[in-house]
TrEMBL record:
Residue ranges occupied by any Cytosol aminopeptidase domain in the UniProt entry: 310-317
Superkingdom to which the source organism belongs: Bacteria
PROSITE patterns for the chain: CYTOSOL_AP (PS00631)
Family, similarity comment: Belongs to the peptidase M17 family.
Gene3D superfamilies: Leucine Aminopeptidase, subunit E, domain 1, Zn peptidases
Protein name: Leucyl aminopeptidase family protein
This protein's UniProt keywords: Aminopeptidase, Hydrolase, Manganese, Protease
GO biological process: proteolysis
Keyword rRNA-binding: no
GO MF entry, a single one: manganese ion binding
Hydrolase recorded as keyword: yes
Gene Ontology CC entries for this record: cytoplasm
Length: 463
């Protein structure tokens, strides 16, 4: 991982190139105060202070150049307003002219993300360092940016190099760095204790065999919280196999696990006073002679029986067993992340995770936190009347609704069956992928809902 801490430094008056933030309202007053050489450069370039517009400004000497950046509001920089510049500028040290960078520091770090693991020639551009007048926030900003880079790296990695064993290794490395023990349940113990995780993953063997990865951290006397992430390292759809186009991006089906692990890392690195329980059911939904079948009836860890209406609705099965285990620890809060349904994407598109919560105050805190840190979500209903769509003729419930309607709602209602009614719980049905690039948010894997969840935890549990 890139050393992001080197890309933000306290502003102690050291030499740095100036970045001028200019919005449409202030463009003409700003331009009128510039020397003739700058006005000519602006005229030649067509710079009008449009959002993310960028221009290098000549100084008195060739080496004295600075830059102007078009922003929406120069008095209140957004998270992303420096992201394009962070990507485009040459190596060097920079400061925002006339004010501190504020929350745009995060976008500066995220704008320098690269995934070069498989490229013969990696990006050779050197670091672009930003000075900040708020050094107290550097540590948290770096930790959050590192977590976002972690999600991107994990989701971007092909399934051949990130199966259940490799995902386990990443968890163990982070746990060792943070002083947290890890428990792995697989084989006969998984069969006996987590039958739905076992069933979904049993068609894969060896290093790709299913397992439940658990991490616990923090003082047991502190409030207990559980974070759960869907870790389907590749989803073929099972015997209800996906078409080629539907399978193309299924390396990202462990995006929920990536979010959960990244959030857990923020909690541990920030020394949040909680007792953390991280659970990642890690599987590959493969096809072989012993793959679970449509029509099978599985017994869950909770004791509920589940008829398999569709083997491609596998994420909710492994989460059901993991949520049951999380609830056994009697946490005061459960958060889960999953790339669960295409229906959520049809409803909300790629940018907005669907948020479900069994408490209004929990949903409100998550939405408000997301708004504050530019990590939006949209609340969807746990509409109990749709639970009848999950009825089975021979089991306690079916894993897939008979109707194609309300797919993300019925999936969330399935998960709710495994959460105690008196336990606050929120579920993010997130895409974890950007089909097109935006400043600071490259095409590919991305964290969506991560910062909103951290804002909630920080607000509730920071001393």
């Amino acid at each position: 991982m890139t050393d992001l801490s080197a890309l933000i430094q306290p502003d102690k008056g050291q030499a740095a190139r100036s970045l001028h933030l200019v919005d449409k309202k202030g463009f003409e007053p700003w331009l009128s105060g510039q020397p003739e050489r700058v006005r000519q450069a602006v005229a030649a370039s067509g710079f009008k202070a449009d959002g993310y517009q960028f221009i290098l400004l000549p100084g008195e000497k060739a080496e004295d150049w600075s830059a102007a950046l078009g922003v929406t509001n120069a008095n209140d920089p957004s998270v992303w307003c420096l992201s394009k510049a962070a990507d485009a500028l040459p190596e060097g040290v920079y400061r925002v002219a006339g004010r501190g960078p504020g929350r745009a520091v995060l976008g500066w770090l995220l704008g320098q993300y690269r995934f070069d693991r498989y490229r013969k020639e990696a990006d050779a551009k050197g670091p672009r360092v930003l000075l900040t007048d708020d050094p107290a926030r550097i540590a948290e900003t770096v930790t959050v940016a590192e977590a976002t880079h972690l999600v991107r790296d994990l989701v971007n990695t092909p399934a051949a190099d990130l199966g259940p064993a490799e995902l386990q290794k990443v968890v163990e490395e982070i746990a060792a760095d943070c002083g947290a023990p890890v428990t792995i349940t697989k084989g006969d113990d998984l069969v006996a204790g987590y039958p739905m995780i076992q069933a979904v993953g049993q068609a894969a063997s060896g290093d790709r065999a299913p397992r439940l990865i658990e991490l616990e951290w923090g003082d047991p006397a502190n409030p207990r919280i559980a974070i759960v992430g869907k870790g389907v390292c590749f989803d073929s759809g099972g015997l209800d196999i996906k078409p080629a186009a539907g399978m193309r991006l299924m390396k990202k089906d462990m995006g929920g696990a990536a979010h959960a692990l990244a959030l857990a890392r923020i909690v541990m690195k920030s020394r949040l006073p909680v007792r953390l329980h991280l659970l990642i059911p890690a599987v590959e939904n493969a096809v072989s002679g012993n793959a679970f079948r449509p029509g099978d009836v599985l017994k869950s860890r909770k004791g509920l029986t589940v008829e398999i209406g569709n083997t491609d609705a596998e994420g909710r099965l492994i989460l059901g067993d993991a949520l049951t285990k999380a609830a056994e620890g009697e946490p005061e809060l459960i958060l889960d992340f999953a790339t669960l349904t295409g229906a959520a994407r049809v409803a909300l598109g790629p940018d907005l995770p669907a948020l479900f919560a069994n408490r209004d105050d929990l949903a409100e805190d998550l939405l408000n936190g997301g708004e504050k840190v530019s990590d939006p979500a949209w609340r969807m209903p746990l509409w109990k009347h749709y639970a009848e769509m999950l009825k089975s003729d021979i089991a306690d419930l079916n894993n897939a609704a008979d109707s194609p309607m309300a797919g993300c709602v019925t999936a969330a209602l399935f998960l709710q069956k495994f959460v105690p009614e008196n336990t606050p719980w929120a579920h993010f049905d997130t895409f974890a992928w950007r089909p097109s690039a935006k400043p600071g948010r490259p095409k590919g894997g991305d964290a969506m809902g991560l910062r909103a969840a951290w804002e909630l935890l920080k607000g509730r549990y920071s001393r």
